[in-house]
Amino acid sequence: MLLLLAGCDRGPHRATDAFVAMGAPVQITVLARNEAEADAALRAARAEVERLEALLSDFRPASDLCRLNERESVTLAPETRLLLQRAQQVCRDTGGAFDVSIGPVKRLWGFGGDTTPHLPEASALQHLLLHVGCETYRLEADGSFHWLDPEARLDLGGIAQGFVARCVADSFRARGLRDFLIDISGDIVVGGERPRGGPWRIGVQNPRQPDSLLATVPMRWRAVTTSGDYEQFFIEGGVRYHHIFDPATGYPARGTASVSVFSDDPIAADCYATALFVLGPERGMAFLAARPDLQAVFVVEGKEGGVALQPSAGIAAVFAPAQR
User: Which of 4, 233, 259, 310 sits most deeply, having the most CB atoms within 10 A of its CB?
Assistant: First the structure.
């Protein structure tokens, strides 16, 4: 988990389901009036996750995404069109800091594939960078899709998990269930309150001490996603190489150990966490100043190997050191 749940309470009827989907751990907790209602809601939630994975996965040959990447003719599902539209919008808004065409670069480095992570050949990296960018594809008003780069490939991993978490939350609300927590590998959506009342408390993990928290944030009806350099990485020559790449260079982004983004929109929390990690604290804070719908907590390398917190103004008021 990229964020650790802090202060879980037990309630009158609390049910949890844990499984693996989209190559990531999924944990869903819901509070219901009785066992039968909770079980039905969790079964429906798992079915929704599996349905969306079948559409959006980059590893299932029949998915919309795989068929697009293979240049097959495909009528896109509404969910796929929505994510491609949002991905392109965020790419443009962030000057390319978030880009769903970066997938081949990640695989060249050995992340997300079958090879061991490693430093790539510079010539191969430069070739792939020619086919990375916001304008590698076009979506028409009628929903039709057109490739603008014959060698580009898309990977929705940086936006799909937030969308799936939102869809699960919507399924709970449709059943009249208000209180829940959905965690898809650190993409977290909460609804309502904890079993004994009060907001859910989400802990910001220390990226250099994974078993400890730096701070907690109380949340109701919100989403948070963390992007960090500590889940997938290797060290060579004393340098940490991780899986969050700057599309401008093809190398891991520098200056941030992790960033947690808070939003009412789980999709925004997901993709802007990546974008702000790439932008770094200085440019990221400037970007947030014009986006009151987003708040973030940057964790940066501090002195003597420690870390330092930089919460944005919108989250500082409810930001609490973990020891409290």
Answer: 259
Interatomic CA distance for residues 278 and 242, integer angstroms: 12
Is the per-residue pLDDT at 299 higher than 50?
Answer: yes
**Cα 198 to Cα 217: distance, rounded to the nearest angstrom:** 12
Angle 211-212-213 from CA coordinates, rounded to 5°? 135
Largest interatomic CA distance in the chain = 60
**Tokens 């010539």 — which residue?**
123
pLDDT at residue 9 in the model: 46
Q: Write out the two tokens for 36.
A: 């039968």
At 230, phi and psi to the nearest 5?
-110, -5
pLDDT of residue 195: 79
137's tokens: 């594809």
Provide the pLDDT for residue 145: 95
DSSP 222-233: EEEEEEESSSSE
Alpha helices by DSSP H, 119-233:
122-129, 160-174
Tell me how far apart the alpha carbons of residues 249 and 84 are, in angstroms, rounded to a whole number: 23
Q: pLDDT value at position 12? A: 60
Query: Which band of pLDDT confidence, cut at 50, 70 and 90, is reported for residue 314?
Result: confident
**Nearest-CA neighbor of 171 among 36, 301, 291, 28?**
28
pTM of the predicted model, to two decimals? 0.92
- Least confident piece of the model among 165-179, 196-210, 214-228, 251-265: 196-210
The radius of gyration of the chain from alpha carbons, rounded to an integer in Å, stands at 20
- Contact of 45 with 17, CB cutoff 8 Å: yes
- Amino acid at position 211, single letter: D
CA distances to 39, 123, 210 from 89, rounded to whole Å, are 38, 30, 33
For 58, 68, 108, 132, 268, the CA distances from 150, given in Å and listed in that order, are 18, 12, 18, 11, 29
Rounded Cα gap, residues 312 and 192, in angstroms: 24
